[in-house]
Amino acid sequence: MGLLMVHSVSPIRHAFYEAFLNLHRIGIVIVLAGIYFHLANHALPQLLWVYISITLWAIEVLLRFIRIIYLNLSWKQRTWTRLSLEALPGEATHATFSLRRSWNANPGSHIHVYLPKVALWSSHPFSVAWSETSGYAQHASEKLPLSIRNLDIEDPQCTISCMIRARTGMTRSLYELASTAENCNVELWGAVEGPYGGYHSLASYGTVVLFAAGVGITHQLSFVRHLLHGHNSNTIAAQNILLVWCIPIVECLEWIQPWLEELTAMENFREVVRIRIHISRMTLLEIEEMQVPTSLDVRAHRGDAQDVVDEEILTQVGAMVVSVCGPVGFNERVREAVRLRVGMRSIDFIEESFSY
């Protein structure tokens, strides 16, 4: 138990996630077995609670297994979830899961990923950057169908996209697998479990400021699409949405380029949404020589969270929320900027961490 407690400390847990996960699973089995034999040898009445604990744990594992099978396996087409990996600049991997079932998740959700070829005994959590579901009924004739059997109904298909930064362990293995493949693309099979999270609703805020650093953009991007869609359908209060993304090199823009194109094509994008990119390793002259899309405001410095918050307060519409997802130091700077102004206006703060 002492070893498990030491290994659960946040810095150690983040640095050795796979070891943390597997040690805790083994530890649970050892602890339950030890308690069981201790109580059984002395015929103590508390043995019933061990049976209950084991039963509940077994039920939880069984239900999760059934849910994973249901979500990832298509009995009709005899197909399993496929994963496409693409290596991108900045040591990032674009992972796209193709499921054969419809899949809905709130913005800010995450999934657990199972990839036996890369990490046989563990799953890893990743934020969902983008998801799309397709599948509908078709009928070739101009006449109305006589029954549902006359319809050509396509099975719903869903794609889930994650952006994974190469660190150590599984994330490094994924990037090396994709980067060494032909055309930096590789396909393999896997499974997803979820969605989890996505508990924060920003629907009641007129002004929304989303800060992201590095792969923290995966958490914030889904909020932009959700809020803009709600604005267009008059179901949310958002009138002013600002996304601030801090990256080290300009090549990181390739991480989200396809999704940016979809966002900019949405109705009322330019009237409601602003996207500001801060590139810390570029000079102003280098940015001026770039061909930057007019939908992006690219700046050649790290950026000051206090300046951003103060600017948005001056044009605030309704209640305001500031959300941040990034490294600890980045999150602390944004939190401090909000704290200094929270007494002036109606401002809420939401922080999302990279990992458990």
Automatic annotation (TrEMBL):
Protein name (record): FAD-binding FR-type domain-containing protein
Residue runs in coiled coils: none
Family according to the record: Belongs to the ferric reductase (FRE) family.
Keywords from the named record: Electron transport, Membrane, Oxidoreductase, Transmembrane, Transmembrane helix, Transport
Entry's Gene Ontology cellular component terms: plasma membrane
Transmembrane segments annotated in the record for this chain: 20-40, 46-66
Keyword Cytoplasm: no
PROSITE patterns in the record: FAD_FR
A Pfam family it matches: NAD_binding_6
KW Oxidoreductase (keyword) present: yes
Matches recorded under PANTHER family: FERRIC/CUPRIC REDUCTASE TRANSMEMBRANE COMPONENT (PTHR32361), PUTATIVE (AFU_ORTHOLOGUE AFUA_1G14340)-RELATED (PTHR32361:SF12)
Source species of the chain: Neocucurbitaria cava
GO molecular function: ferric-chelate reductase activity
GO biological process, one term: intracellular iron ion homeostasis
InterPro entries: FAD-bd_8, FAD-bd_FR_type, Fe_red_NAD-bd_6, Ferric/Cupric_Reductase, FNR_nucleotide-bd
Domain (FAD-binding FR-type) ranges: 75-202
